[in-house]
Amino acid sequence: MTRKAAIIGGGVIGGGWAARFLLNGWDVAVFDPDPQAERKIGEVLANARAALPALSDVPMPAEGRLSFAGTITEAVEGAHYIQESVSERLELKHRVFAQVQQVAPGVLIGSSTSGFKPSQLQENAADPGSIFVAHPFNPVYLLPLAEVVPSPANPPEAIAQAKEILREIGMFPLHIRKEIDAHIADRFLEAVWREALWLVKDGIATTEEIDEAIRMGFGLRWGQMGLFETYRVAGGEAGMKHFMAQFGPCLQWPWTKLTDVPEFNDELVDLIAGQSDAQSGHHTIRELERIRDSNLIGFMRALKDRNWGAGRVLREHDERRRAAFHDGEATGAPLVMAQMQVLPGWIDYNGHMTESRYLFAASETSDAFLRLIGSDMDYVASGFSYYTAESHILHLGEARLGDRLTGTLQVLAADEKRLHIFIRIMKGEEAVATIEQMLLHVDMKAGRTVAAGAHVLDRLMPIAKAHQALPRPEGAGRFTGQRKG
Amino acid sequence: MTRKAAIIGGGVIGGGWAARFLLNGWDVAVFDPDPQAERKIGEVLANARAALPALSDVPMPAEGRLSFAGTITEAVEGAHYIQESVSERLELKHRVFAQVQQVAPGVLIGSSTSGFKPSQLQENAADPGSIFVAHPFNPVYLLPLAEVVPSPANPPEAIAQAKEILREIGMFPLHIRKEIDAHIADRFLEAVWREALWLVKDGIATTEEIDEAIRMGFGLRWGQMGLFETYRVAGGEAGMKHFMAQFGPCLQWPWTKLTDVPEFNDELVDLIAGQSDAQSGHHTIRELERIRDSNLIGFMRALKDRNWGAGRVLREHDERRRAAFHDGEATGAPLVMAQMQVLPGWIDYNGHMTESRYLFAASETSDAFLRLIGSDMDYVASGFSYYTAESHILHLGEARLGDRLTGTLQVLAADEKRLHIFIRIMKGEEAVATIEQMLLHVDMKAGRTVAAGAHVLDRLMPIAKAHQALPRPEGAGRFTGQRKG
C-alpha cells in the first residue's frame, strides 16, 4: 500500500522533503498558506526529478501522488509520517504540533528545525513522544544527512521507526544522543559563518575569496572524509595523538575571532549582499541550483563508484529498492535502469555524443539490470557471469551536450542459459539509439555456457514473463543494412 | 631550461610540494636533517605519481630530478624558488631564512606556515621582500589552494612572480590582501576544530558522528561552492539579504561554544585518539591516503567535466601544459595522453573491464590528442572536426578492478585531411589492448573531407614527423582474424 507523508511548510526545505518522499513512491500532502507554495514546490520537484534518479541504479518506483491541502487537518489525515518545516518560531511550531496531534495522535512528527532542541518542541504537547528533530540539509532531495535528535520523552521504538523511514527514502539518519542547541552540523556552520562575517566586515577577504578558500582546499576533503579522519591522515604514521600535540597550542592563539560576534546591521548586510552579487550575480538562482545539483551528482557518483561515504548510502538505498522491486513492482513496461546526462567530456569533436558513450550508456543499462536480478559482484566472485555474445546497435538520433538520457531495458526472451534483451537510449520520448543483445550465462572456470543460479532465475523469469505482454520493438531482429518495412 | 625548486623541510607538506614541482618538470633539492626524510618523501611521491597524472589530459612533462641536500646552502644553490615547510616555530623559521638568504639573496621564499603572518616571518631578514606566505593544503600534490599572503614589505612584482610559479605547477594562488593570524582557511578550520573538541569532550558526539555530520551534508556542498554561494542558492529567489535577515538573529543565540576553548590535556587527547582508532583504525594510514586521493580525483574529475571550481583550475593548467608541450616537448615517443583507474563501475560481470570501457579509454586518449593539436570545442563550434572512419581493436590482455591504465598515442601517418593513429591501452609495461584508427578531417556543414586548419596542422605535423622515427607497431595494419607472423 502506498504510504502518505504530510509536509507542513512548503519552502525550499519542505519542498525538498516533498520531492524525496514523492520520488521514493510515497503520496505527499503539502500544507502551506503561501499562495505561491504550489509554484515553489513545483520548481523544487522539477529540480529533484532531474537529479535524484541520476544517483540510482535501480528502477525508481512509480512517483507518489502530490496534493495541496487547505488545512493542516486535511494534510495530516491518514498520514504515516509528518514533517514540519515552518519558520524558526517556537510558538508557531507549537501551534502546528497542537493542530496535528488533534487529528493524528501518535503519528511521528519530524521537525526540520535548525536550532531548537526536541524538548523545547515537545513543551505542552498532547503527545510529546511523537515529536523529534529530523534536520535535513539543502538540497534535501540529494544530500543524505538527516540529524535525528530525540529527547528522553521519545520512546526508542519511535525513533527507530523514524530512522527506518528516513533510510527508506535514501537518507542517512545520524542519531544524536544528547540534545543541544543547533544539533551538530549547524554548530560548525554557525562557527564558520561568524568567522566569515568578521573577515568580510574587517575587509580581510571578500565573499568570493572566502568561497575559493573553502572549495579549492578543505571543502574538497570534507565531502569524503570529515574533520577527524582527514586529520588522522594528515598526522601520518605518527598518528592522531601526534597531530593533536602539534596543533594543541594553537587553541590558545588568536586564530579565530570567535570570542565575539560582529554587530548585525544594515551596513554588514549590504556589504555581503553586494559582494555576493559581484561574485555570483551573473548566474540566476535557478542556474546556480542546476550547477550545484550537477556537481553534487558528480561527487556522489564518484563516491558510489568507490563505495565510500555518501556513495555507500546510495548503494545501500539501491539494495533496499532492489528488494522492494522484487516484492512486486515488476510491471509490463520496459525497465528504466539508468539515468545519465551528456557531459562536456562525452561529446566528440562533431558536437554530439561519441559512439563509445552510446555503448557505455547501454552497458550502464544492462549492468544495472544484471545487478537487479542478482548477477552482481558477489555472483561473479563465485565464478558465474553473463557474457555478451552479440550486439546490434541502431543509431536513430543525436544526443548533445546537456541532454538527459534514460536507458530502458526490455527482456525479449530468457531461458536458463540465454538472455535476449532490447535496450533503448531515450532522450525524453525519443529513442536516440537501440541496442539489441544476446547474453549467455557462463561458468567462468569451466569456460562454458551453463544454467544461471536459481536465485537469478527466480528474479529474471517474472520480469521476462511480464515483458512478454509488451509489443516486440520495431528495431529487434534486424541485420546490419536491412531495409526498413 | 629545467628550473630548480629547493624544499626546506621534508614532512608531509614539504614532500607534497616536492612532488608537485617534480611532476611538473622542475628539479627539486630537499633539505631535511631527519634521517627518515628520503623514505618519507619517497612515499609521498609514490602517492603523487599514482594520483596527479589522473587529473591531466595533456602529456605530463618529463619528471624533474630529485636530490637530497646535506645542507641548506647546498639545497638552495641555483634554486629559482624556495619553499619552507619546517615546524611552526618562529625562531627556527628565522634561522632558515637567514641561512637561505646568505647564499640565495633575492630568490623567492614561500613559507608553508599555517599561522604566522608574513611580517612576523620577515623580522630581521636580510631581504624581507623575498619572504611571503604560500600556505598549501594536504595533499599538496592534489588540492589546488595556496594562500599567498604578502606584507607591505613585498614588492608587488615579487608576489606576481610567485603566483605565476604556483599556477605553473597547477595551483590556485589565492591572494590574501591583508595579513592576519592563520590567514583565511585555517581560521575556519580552527573554529570548527574548537567546536568539535567541545562536542567530543561534552559527550555530545563521537569523532565518527562528527565526521558523518560533515561528509553526508555540508561537506559535499563546500567542495564545489563555498559558504556564501551555497547560502545564496539556499536563500532562493528572495536573495542573499533575505537569507541573512532570516539567520541574523542566530548570531546572538548559543549555537556555538566558541566564546571559550576546552582545556587541552591528556584526557582530551586520549578520548579523541581512542574514538579515532575505533572509527578509522581498520584502515592503515597508507590505505586512507589512497582512499582519500581516489575520492579527490573523482571529485576533481567531476568538476573538470563541468568546468567548475577546482575543475576549472585543472583545465587552465592543461591549457598551459599544452602550450609548453608545443614549445618543444614533442619527442620521438608515443604520447601519454590519458591516465585512468579501473573503478568498480567499469568492470563487468566477468570480473574484467567491459569492452565499452576499452573503447572509452581509447576515445579519452584520442580526444585528448585532438585537443592537444587544437581540434577542440571551439574548433568544432567553427564547423570543423576530425571524424573516426575506421577502427581496429586488438584485445591482448585483461584489466581488472583497481588497475591503473595509461593511454598512449602514436601517429602512424598524417596529411592535410587524414590522421592515422595507433593507441595502446597500457597496464604498466603491458598493452592490454591496441586500437588503430583512421580519422578524416571534415567540414561539418558541407559534409565533406577538407584540409585541416593551419593552426591544427602546425601542431600535428611536427609530432607526426617525430613519430616517423618510431618502430611501426606489430599490431598495425591487421585485418580481423589475420594470423600472426
Summarize the structure.
By secondary structure, chain A is α/β, with parallel strands linked by helices. Chain A contains 16 helices and 14 strands.
Structural write-up:
The structure is a homodimer of 485-residue chains. The first copy, chain A, has 485 residues and is of the alpha/beta class. Chain A folds into 3 domains: 172 residues, Rossmann fold, CATH 3.40.50.720; 98 residues, N-(1-d-carboxylethyl)-l-norvaline Dehydrogenase, domain 2, CATH 1.10.1040; 138 residues, Roll (Thiol Ester Dehydrase, Chain A). Helices cover 42% and strands 19% of the residues of chain A. In chain A, the strands form 2 sheets. An 8-stranded mixed beta sheet of chain A has the order 3-2-1-4-5-6-7-8, sandwiched between helices. In chain A, strands 9, 10, 11, 12, 13 and 14 form a 6-stranded antiparallel beta sheet that branches. In chain A, helix 1 links the parallel strand 1 and strand 2. In chain A, helix 9 packs across helix 10 and helix 12 crosses helix 13. The longest helix of chain A has 21 residues. Chain A is globular. The first copy, chain A, starts with a strand and ends in an 18-residue tail after the last helix. At the A-B interface, helix 7, helix 8, helix 9, helix 10 and helix 11 of A face helix 7, helix 8, helix 9, helix 10 and helix 11 of B.
